[in-house]
From TrEMBL:
GO molecular function, one term: phosphoglycolate phosphatase activity
Protein name from the UniProt record: GMP/IMP nucleotidase
Lineage of the organism: Bacteria, Pseudomonadati, Pseudomonadota, Gammaproteobacteria, Moraxellales
Cellular component, GO, one term: cytosol
Superkingdom in the source lineage: Bacteria
Entry's EC annotation: 3.1.3.5
UniProt keyword annotations, A-Z: Hydrolase
InterPro entries, alphabetized: HAD-like_hydrolase_sf, HAD-like_sf, HAD-SF_hydro_IA, HAD_sf
């Protein structure tokens, strides 16, 4: 995919974390296998039965801040999910070209924000593992603002605490409900991700322009005269 971006009109690039800069395979492994296995062992259930029992609990919180809250699920499931997350951290990895993209954008003097629904505990684990925190001007968790990115109030809270020009901003996220909320708020340049999880097939018929490889986003930067 060739992205036609007028980079001279862009000051800020906001990135989601999981499924955008990081491979979503880790999160799917954690929530679909590691957590049900731990819960099944706790209650002495077969794995498949535990998974069926957990699905309605997960579904009921989908799209809310609780859905993304490690402390919420630790309490709800009576599991130490922080320790479990750390035990599985070797599965955390960046998507291809992520580091090069961050480098290229910084060299082009763009501001970079990481804007994630991940709980601060998870954000810290993943920044420690990947070492990418230093690229960003701000690391922003929706839990600090009180609303998930799917919710309109998140964007108003974000702009109040971290003012930005939504007309001169690019936002990249693998979640289409999040992209829809961002676009509704007024961010004009929004992009999805074709294949957030490297273990799953590429998605089809997405509603928003979507990036396959992250270097597609920075390829058009080559024509920019980088300021000294």
């Amino acid at each position: 995919m060739v992205l036609n971006i007028n980079w001279q009109a862009i000051d800020l690039v906001m990135f989601d974390m999981d499924g955008t800069l990081l491979d979503l395979a880790f999160d799917n492994l954690f929530w679909q296998q590691a957590v049900p296995q731990a819960w099944a062992a706790l209650h002495q259930h077969p794995f498949d039965h535990a998974l069926e029992l957990l699905k309605p609990q997960f579904k009921a919180q989908e799209g809310t801040l609780n859905w993304y809250s490690l402390p919420y699920w630790s309490n709800a499931l009576n599991l130490d999910l922080t320790t479990l997350k750390i035990q599985y951290q070797d599965h955390i990895c960046l998507r291809p070209h992520a580091l090069q993209l961050l480098h290229d954008l910084k060299m082009a003097n763009k501001k970079l924000w990481l804007v994630t629904n991940a709980h601060p505990i998870v954000l810290n684990v993943k920044m420690q593992k990947t070492g990418i925190a230093h690229w960003f001007d701000h690391l922003i968790s929706s839990h600090d603002l009180g609303f998930a990115k799917e919710q309109e109030l998140f964007w108003h809270k974000l702009a109040a605490q971290y003012p930005f020009d939504k007309k001169r901003t690019i936002f990249v996220d693998d979640s289409e409900p999040v992209l829809q909320a961002a676009q509704h708020y007024g961010i004009q340049h929004v992009y999805g991700i074709v294949q957030p999880d490297s273990k799953l097939p590429a998605r089809q018929q997405l509603k928003f322009p979507a990036i396959d490889q992250l270097n597609e986003l920075s390829s058009s930067l080559l024509s920019i005269q980088v300021e000294e």
